[in-house]
Amino acid sequence: MKIDKLDKQILEYLVKDARKPFTEIAKDLLVSPGTIHVRVKKMESLGVIKSTSISVDYEKLGFGFIAYVGLYTKRSLSSPNIIELLREVPEVTVAHLATGKYGIFCKIRCRDASHAKDVIFRINDIEGVENTESMISLEESINSNAGLLQLIINE
Q1: 1.10.10.60, 1.10.10.10, 2.40.320.10, 1.20.1510.10: CATH of 5-54
Q2: Tell me, what's the pLDDT at 148?
């Protein structure tokens, strides 16, 4: 996978604003818009750019309650099945296979504590989940890959 300095600069622009026109990026980087287009397509084909997205303020949409749920699982062999069933729970926004005391670690977004309780009970009912342990997020203070990308760009 060959990513050069220009590719990294393009990524820096797109991470800050995925909707920024290629013509503006090209003007700032002193290259043609066609160059930007070709480079972005190359990074997409390499899998470096997986998708473009928007950032949504879920709190303004009524889903500001965040909790993290650790799942104690019976066997690691059942984890893929549990993950598939977690995909059917729309409030589960992130799920990781994990090491340590939890077999799976999830992030859920809910309307309030009562809604979170219902979601956690649904998760507990999934075949292969022995028990859960939850932690309520008081505030999501950092949710950014910008620092990591800056580190990669500067390497």
Answers
A1: 1.10.10.10
A2: 86
